[in-house]
Amino acid sequence: LGILFALVTTVAVGAGVFAVAFHVVRLPHDQAFLIAAGIGLASAETTRHAVRWVGEHGVGQSAILSRIEEIADTDEIVPLFGLAILFALLPATTTIVTLPFGVWLAVTAALGIGLGATCAMLISAQRASVEAWIVLLGAALLGTGIAWRLDISPLTVMFVMGIVLGLLSRHALALREMLTRTESPVLLPTLLLGGALVRFEAPGLGWIIAGALVMRTFIRWLLGFFFGWANQLGGRQRALLGFGMSSTGAVTMLVGLAFGFRFPGPVGNTVLCTAA
């Protein structure tokens, strides 16, 4: 259900943004497509923080709240793998190596798998959490640097690395608890970096942001309405549910930053500004 929500949101917002960028702003077809793809992927997330806030402020746990939290836990899969597909489709700008689309996807997966397996082996001999942090941060910096150098998606590389680490490491539960505690603190520097890089200079930026926000608000309202109807909620609850699932977080900002670095200029700037 989370993947379905994210896919519908990505396609709907991407289509709306493409229509505005191509027909209203009159951007070239390739630029309009890249901007629509980036904003569509950035719009797919439902942050877990909003769901947890509702649970902590008097509502308590219920079946529908748990289901929404599950949706928020899984919908990041779409932008993370969507970035990998999009970056692998486009020609690399920082390397002279020319490889087919499928090979670039395999390189993305292999880099994450290799780093995850290496971390699992190195951490297996560690006892202190500080030493585990050194291994994780070193692998993250190495993987991110290699991914940027090859023009593949660093977010996807780190995601695959985390999956492999969770499957192979005998300290998987402890590592998951360690990393879960960093989720909120990481949001602030991510927003700070994104805000420092935002430039409101791209052509037609206001129209594109307005189109993205209107389309995302509408599609989230529609998804929330049908989701509430399937769970037999009242009319007012169905009308408001989609708005409650509209909050975004770190993944949205990271997708914006990824596009800002991968496509410097009007395309990356437009996606980053809209994500912000």
Protein architecture, described:
The chain has 276 residues and is mainly alpha-helical. The longest helix is centred in the C-terminal third of the chain and has 26 residues, at 205-230. The chain has 14 helices and no strands. The mean pLDDT is 89. The two termini are 26 Å apart. Helix 3 (48-59) packs antiparallel against helix 4, helix 10 packs parallel to helix 13 (250-262) and helix 11 (205-230) packs across helix 12.
Rg result: 20 Å
Cα end-to-end separation: 26 Å
Mean pLDDT: 89
Number of H- or I-type helical stretches: 14
Low-confidence blocks of residues: none
Q: Element order, helices and strands?
A: HHHHHHHHHHHHHH
Major beta sheet summary: none
- Fraction of residues in β-strands: under 5%
Shape: globular
Structural class: mainly alpha
Classify the oligomer. Answer: single chain
Number of strands: 0
What descriptors fit this protein?
14 helices, 276 residues, single chain, mainly alpha
List the helices and strands and how they pair.
Layout: H1 2-24, H2 29-42, H3 48-59, H4 63-74, H5 77-89, H6 101-124, H7 129-150, H8 154-168, H9 172-180, H10 183-197, H11 205-230, H12 235-244, H13 250-262, H14 266-275
Helix pairs in contact: 1-2, 1-11, 2-5, 2-13, 2-14, 3-4, 5-6, 5-8, 6-7, 6-8, 7-8, 8-9, 10-13, 11-12, 13-14
